[in-house]
UniProtKB/TrEMBL annotation:
It is found in: Cytoplasm. It comes from Alloscardovia macacae. SUPFAM superfamilies: Triosephosphate isomerase (TIM) (SSF51351). InterPro entries: Aldolase_TIM, TIM_sf, TrioseP_Isoase_bac/euk, Triosephosphate_isomerase, Triosephosphate_isomerase_AS. Keywords: Cytoplasm, Gluconeogenesis, Glycolysis, Isomerase. This is Triosephosphate isomerase.
């Protein structure tokens, strides 16, 4: 939709150290400079591990790249005796635009439950960044046919007490867990159904205007081979959250250049 600029997000997970991140950014900049890429037609964001964020920042600034970046999670507290945590203010000081909140790997391997995720969303917004909230059913819910209610329920769990002003800054990534890192991509119809259900929920909860402007992404085994079909056939979907296929500049840019 002309209302919504497509957004392509690379989630590096625990890959690419600060040197590899610098190499990736140089390569991506080089490919995009020579290729068919119109920065006004598509927004690109990279979510490196914490230790690689500064490398990405340096390259973005040095080459004046129209590429945003962010973090994969954030502490719910602002500072102090929280060994191992990184605050939202630290991330915004590094120029981060986005923070991924509630990725299925965080929900599974860490204590990122609903109460904690609501606080991550609030901490991200308070520091002037935008949360990218991940939702999506597992294989069981899909088998039972309750995937849409499940994903919409996850959105509601986090947005229930969020004001309309705050909800306007939220980006939602629909990522069916069975599709993440498995090579099993959702059909364009399922991606569309989920994006549509989430958009309808936002319209009912907030307003038609907010729903029309909200960016909803699909994630789960997106590659340069399936991106175009998904994007053209799932009309409520505004881009991708990409794991594996974001780790090599050539493959990642091959997706970007189809937008
Ligand atoms: C992800 O981790 O958000 C993801 C979608 O991974 P992949 O693209 O590798 O399935």
């Amino acid at each position: 939709s002309a209302l919504r600029t497509p957004l392509i997000v690379g989630n590096w997970k625990m890959n690419l150290n600060h040197r590899e991140a610098a190499q990736f950014m140089q390569q991506l900049a080089w490919i995009l400079r020579d290729g068919r890429f119109d920065p006004s037609a598509c927004e690109i964001a990279i979510l490196p591990p914490f230790t690689s964020i500064h490398s990405v920042q340096v390259l973005v600034q040095a080459d004046k790249l129209s590429i945003c970046y962010g973090a994969q999670t954030v502490s719910v507290t602002s500072q102090g005796a929280f060994t191992g945590d990184v605050s939202a203010d630290m991330l915004s000081a590094l120029g981060c635009t986005y923070v991924l909140v509630g990725h299925s790997e965080r929900r599974r391997y860490h204590s990122d439950d609903d109460a904690n995720l609501v606080d991550q969303v609030r901490a991200t917004l308070a520091a002037g960044m935008q949360p990218i909230l991940c939702v999506g059913e597992g294989y069981e819910e899909r088998r039972e046919g309750i995937e849409l209610d499940y994903a919409v329920g996850q959105v509601d769990d986090i947005t229930r007490d969020l004001s309309e002003e705050d909800a306007r800054k939220l980006i939602i990534a629909y990522e069916p867990v069975w599709a993440i890192g498995t090579g099993l991509v959702a059909t364009p119809q399922s991606a569309q159904d989920a994006a549509h259900a989430i958009r309808t929920h936002l319209e009912r909860t907030y307003s038609a205007d907010l729903a029309a402007q909200a960016r909803i992404l699909y994630g789960g085994s997106v590659t340069s081979a399936n991106a175009l079909t998904l994007l053209t056939q799932a009309r409520d979907m505004d881009g991708f959250l990409i794991g594996g296929a974001s780790l090599e500049a050539e493959e990642f840019s091959a997706i970007i250049q189809q937008i």
